[in-house]
Specification:
The chain is mainly α. About 45% of the residues lie in helices and about 0% in strands. The chain has 2 helices and no strands. About 0% of the residues are buried.
Length: about 80
């Protein structure tokens, strides 16, 4: 799936800010800053958020509004 440049940048910023917030929270609790689960373990919060973003990221030129493409208005 190809994402528009705007969506790619937004996605990267959201993932970075999420990672930073989780790291700060973990450090405030005296936990290791990063702690990826072992293979076969349930996903951690960051992995779940990343999966949600991947699920809802519209391909380039497409909108999440059914039948609406880039450049179209809702009233068209």
């Amino acid at each position: 799936m190809t994402l528009s440049p705007e969506v790619e940048v937004t996605r990267a910023v959201v993932l970075h800010e999420t990672s930073t917030a989780i790291t700060k929270l973990r450090e405030s609790q005296n936990l290791a800053p990063l702690d990826d689960p072992i293979p076969g373990a349930p996903p951690n919060a960051f992995q779940m958020i990343r999966a949600i973003l991947n699920e809802f990221s519209a391909p380039a030129g497409e909108s999440h509004v059914r039948g609406l493409n880039r450049g179209q208005n809702l009233s068209e």
